[in-house]
Amino acid sequence: MKICRRAIECIQVINDDGDVRVCGWLKDGGIVGRLAEQSMSEIYNGAHAKQIKEMHLNGDYSNCNPNACPYVANNEVDDHSLELDELPKYPPSLFLAYENVCNYHCVMCTIPDCQKKMDMEEHERKMDKIDAEIRKVLPHVRKISANGLGELFASKHILQLLSEWKPEADASDCSVSLETNGSLFNSNNWEKISNLGQYNLSVSITILSFDPVKYQELSGTSLPVDNLINNLYFVKSLREQGIINRLELATVYQDANFRELPEFARRCIEEFGADYVRLRPFEPWRDPDMKEWMRDVRNEYNPYHKEFLEVMKDPIFKHPKVHDWGGGKVSGLGPEPYPRMRARYNLIEKILNDNSFIDRLKERVDTGSIAIYGMHLVGRTLVNHLRNDFDIPYCIDKAMDGKSFGNVPIYGTYDLRKFEKNTTVIISLDQNENAVKDLLIREGYSSILLIRDLVK
Q: What pTM value is reported for the model?
């Protein structure tokens, strides 16, 4: 059988609840379990992980986000697939990114927002629980990766697990992949995990700019870029000694740094000895405001889009070590937020001024309650407008998981597994509605309505 390797190997522990996901490039988030409730073995062999594997085995990539997945974007899934006789019982690979701490505050990242919400005593209790569950499967793991959702060298629990890893397999059959911003990758910190040098070691360092001012602005740090550059020379020396076996230098291109991409790529190869240069496009993690919208230069509506296309004609991008994860495709983000917001206000106006809206909805709701998916402006309006006529036990919005609106609790998609599915879900979104509908169907919902189909 043939299957995308990420459906088997990309098992990620991503937060202090111990949420486990299969590949972060899936449209629905790929959450398949929670270490606070199950063991890793139970999660990996559970129904939700099995469903993802079956989709990939059948060549169904409809849940894969082409703006995040370079394999789908570049039509290269087969090149990154495994031939297996049977599916493994334990994850052969683990991706550790559950501490969510960082010394940067990058403009396109929400990890620092997670830090602000932490109760440190409760956080440490959760860390100990996750550490214990991960230690049970570590001997079976042949590949271990960290971090990507935070800074590796600021993550004390993950560093401890890395320092004590003793796989059952021979060292020659094991590999390690580390992701870091490079600002703390010096000889003193490397010494804490230098045991990893005995394995096939890959290191990925994300650099938002080599320009001193842009580096600090985009990274949200007061550290000078020279500190990073000195660390890159140290990492290059580890690569030259064969301690590091593969060095990847990466950036996230956006409005503030896309003009630097040709020089960035050359410098990564010629000065710092990169084996692979990853150019990853900016993608908003949430409904974008105007600043975030401007960052997406792949968007054909962006005023910098044509200039971006000219920059990408530079011959350096044909170099075999340089890889554009955007695949040369437009992002599909669409017009700027103001027209989108105007359209939402128009939608709200239609809902509130339509005297027959509630009666028509009652005719279509054949369950005992409704839930709203998407708690932006339209979703919040629907809650207020419908709560006197319908039972609304919960709403759904993964970006607002754990919050509430008008005393109605809001849950992420993972928590839907707790509920009976005899609720009608109204999708209030104005984009990706069909992907959300597919997700809800897979979760067991049968009564699903799109807001666009409910208004006249």
A: 0.81
Burial class (CB in 10 A: 0-12, 13-18, 19+), 303: exposed
Is residue 116 very low, low, confident or very high in pLDDT (cuts 50, 70, 90)?
low
* Cα distance between residue 55 and residue 64, in whole Å: 10
Calpha distance 174→90 (Å, rounded):
15
Task: Using a pLDDT cut of 70, give the percent of the chain over it.
Answer: 98
The residue among 232, 230, 226, 227 whose CA lies nearest residue 247 is 232
The CATH class, in words, for 2-324 is alpha beta
The single-letter DSSP state of residue 282 is P
Q: Please name the amino acid found at residue 106.
A: C
* Domain boundary assignment for the chain: 2-324, 337-454
Closest to 274 in 3D by CA, of 243, 311, 235, 313: 235
Shortest CA distance to 127 belongs to which of 24, 40, 15?
15
> Which residues, listed in sequence order, are joined to residue 322 by a DSSP beta bridge?
277
Topology (CATH level 3) of domain 337-454: Rossmann fold (3.40.50)
97 CB-near residues (< 8 Å, 6+ apart): 12, 13, 14, 146, 147, 148, 149, 150, 158
